[in-house]
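Handout, page 2. Input:
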Amino acid sequence: MDRVKTLKDYAKEAKKRLKSSFWQEYKSKVDNETKKAEENGTSKSKVIEYYQSKAAVSIRGIKAEDEEFYQRVKNLLDTYGDVSDALGRLTDHEEFSKLSYDAKQRYMFELSNKYRVAKERYYREKSYEKSV
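Output:
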């Protein structure tokens, strides 16, 4: 069971990042990548946006199941593109068949929201990869 983080926990994590030179490494990485992007004629703002999202993910942390879902979405989009039956392909049919009508509606709503977020991340990362 996930425990709820307190303000003290967040402060400890922030202190750990400061001690481990997280922000210095982050800044140097962003500076290097923005220089490369400018040399290639790419927008500096795209690089900064990309690294901001990476830092946010690193700080907040990603649950293993969310990252696994993202990898499934990424494989689907890489292989087939943006298909109309994406939710059907991503549905856990064994679990879905055991649900009541209301639970099925809730499951599909949550799945579609997770898919939307993962798809946005996928296209954001792809646009960055193409620009660099």
